[in-house]
Structures are given as structure tokens and as C-alpha cells.
Amino acid sequence: MNSSQEAVNQLNALMDQVDEHLKDTFQILHQGYPTETLVRFLKAREWNVSKAHKMLVDCLNWRLQNDIDNILSKPIIPIDLYRAVRDSQLVGLSGFSKEGVPVFGIGVGLSTLDRASVNYYVQSHIQINEYRDRVVLPAASELHGRYIGTCLKVLDMTGLKLSALGQIKLLTIISTVDDLNYPEKTDVYYIVNAPYIFSACWRVVRPLLQERTRKKVQVLHGSGRDELLKIMDYASLPHFCKKEGPAGSSQHLPPDINDCFSLDHPFHQEVYNYVKQQAQSQALKVPVKLGSFHVDVPEPDPEGTMIVQTIKSELHKIGDQNGDTHECCLTNDTG
Fold this sequence. Notes:
Residues 78-238 form the CRAL-TRIO domain. The chain has 335 residues and is an alpha/beta fold.
């Protein structure tokens, strides 16, 4: 028996001993794939069984304490508020890779995260995570007749400004939620349309990342269109990659009807309708309390804190060099 299988067996034995209420939420977490889920947590803790066990139990307690199992029955209402969240927290499912893996586009540079309270952005982010894990991935697994438990993310840096400094706290909260409760769910992060400001930060942050994380990040040339077409069909490309020419030219294109960030995109309509239906069925059982959904966010680990401080420092340096620490938007670099 190899060491990784032994680690899985040990972690499985430890999970057999947890309370029943933790086992119940673990079932919702693993969606019928307990072994693959144990492997994710082991990978996240470098195959250290005791650390992976603590991480998983902490995750299950977080789910219970914050009622994450029911978050897909907690709509963000009214619809105008949800549209405001979608317009300022740019994320969406654009399609699937040739291997059947979901492809998510994320508009890092143009997300303003300033149209709602932090609680709504965190709630929205977790709902998309849970919809991905409970609906999208199981459907993909069934379609392809094999387990598909991860996604690809294409991060659009178009429009990245030094004002992103003000978003770092919220982005750190969301990143911490993902690191601790949704580990190893992303195979590769493709960076596209990267301006100089990103390149400058990446140079100093890259050495601070764990090797496992560093290997997952690929900075592509320009919009990344040609490289991404090797792993997905044109229809699955995020809208901001469907152009030729220099990076950043997508800013000057008319709105795309296939814009995966828009609330009107089929993916967001599916999520919205699913949550609404879940809320209605829940309401038949018990009165549903609506409103902002508060989620306790664990403290980020020291490594994450150090990376955030490094980014802040680097952004300030770039701002000082350009005579403006707030609104300097540097031109896109095609290199």
C-alpha cells in the first residue's frame, strides 16, 4: 500500500469517529465522493493526516455554525440588490473544457465590490461555490461517467488599478473562505490581459506562494485566446478572451450577450432560479428568515497575511513612482 493510500485510510478512520452532525454535513460536502474529498484536504495539508483532519473538522464546524448547508435557499433580495452584486463582483461559468471541467471567468480588474455590504459579497461567493459543488460538478460527473470535482479559472486583469488596494480586505476574506473550506477545487488559474501593475506584484508575490499553488498559476500572453483554445472550444471561452489584438482591447468592445458575468447570462439565471425554488420549498417547512446572511470568516493563515502585506507594499511603491497611490491605471503589457 502506498503512503498516500495509507494517509487516506488513516483520515477516513478518524472521520468515522466524529459526531453524527458532522457526518451529516460531510455528506453534503462530499456529494457521494468521500475519498476524493479526503484527498483534497490531505493535499491542502501536504498529506499530513492530523493537520488534514483538523482542517476538515474545522470546515465541517464552520458549515454547521454558519448554516452553509442551507445557503442555497437564502436568496439575495430584492433582485435589484442581487443585480448590483453581480455587476460589481464579476464571476461566472463560461463553459467547460474539452475534458468536461467547468471553466469560470473572473473579472479581477473590473470588479468594484462597492455596491453592497461585505456580507452580500461573501454570501454570493459561497452560493456560487456551493452551486458549483452540488449542482454543476455532479452533473458534469454524471455526463462524463467519471468523477469531475474541480474547475478551471480564467482571471481577467483588464482595468486593474491601484484602487484595488481598497478591495484587498474583502478579497482576503473570500480567499480565506476558499483556502480553508474549499481547498484544491481549482486545477489551474489562467491570468489574462495582465497590465504592468499585475506583473510587478506577481514578481514579488510568486516566490512567497507554496510550490503547489505556484504551479497552478499560468500567466498567458494577451487575452490568452490561442492557448485556451487548446483546452476548450471557442464557445466555452470567457467573453473577455474571444478577441484578438493587444491585451485590454476588450474594454472597447460592445457588451457581449454571452458575458458570463451578467445576471442575464444562463448560468446566473440558473443559480438565481435554483435558489429561489429552494427558498420556496424551505418556506413550506419552516418560515425562512431572509436578509443579509452573515458568515463567520476564520483568521487567514500567516502565509496569506504576509502575501497581502507584500501586495499592499508593492502597490504603494508603484503608486509612489507614478505620483498617485490611488487611481493610477497603467497600460496593459503584452509581454
